[in-house]
Amino acid sequence: MTFRPKLVLCAILLMASPTHAAVAAGAAGRPDAKAVAERLLPPDNLRLPPADAVRTASGLRYVVLKRGKGGAHPLPGSTIVIDYTGWDFQGRVFDSSLPRPQPSRFPLTGLIKGWQEGVLLMSPGDTFRFWIPGNLAYDGNPGGDVPKGKLVFDITLHSFDGGE
User: Residue 125, class by beta-carbon neighbours within 10 Å (0-12 exposed, 13-18 middle, 19+ buried)?
Assistant: First the structure.
């Protein structure tokens, strides 16, 4: 095999170009680093849901940030594919799927009660913001590695399956 410096240089320049980065990010369906950083910032209404936030009987509050195309909703036994970011009430991100190479996949039954209730309201493509009281989150769970008290999550539902 013959070494071809011009060909190698062209490949390096192509890989380093902003166009290549955008194509690669788009092909993978993941946001670029700048978009991730922006989405990890705490929302302005972190501590106080807006007046138009819906409140459920359990105390869960939510607003629709973006509607998808509509359609079916997950069932309690569904496995969901989502992107999410969670903040504590001090504005600290304690978990997010966004920096990972692909969305997260979870059985809904294994998640906190606030997600079990809230995600059922969503259709694929929807992005909701949830204000979850501590009793629907991690309060009462043993261990110091989970945040306690009220939490805020932005969740995008990509897809789901099962749940019958």
Answer: middle
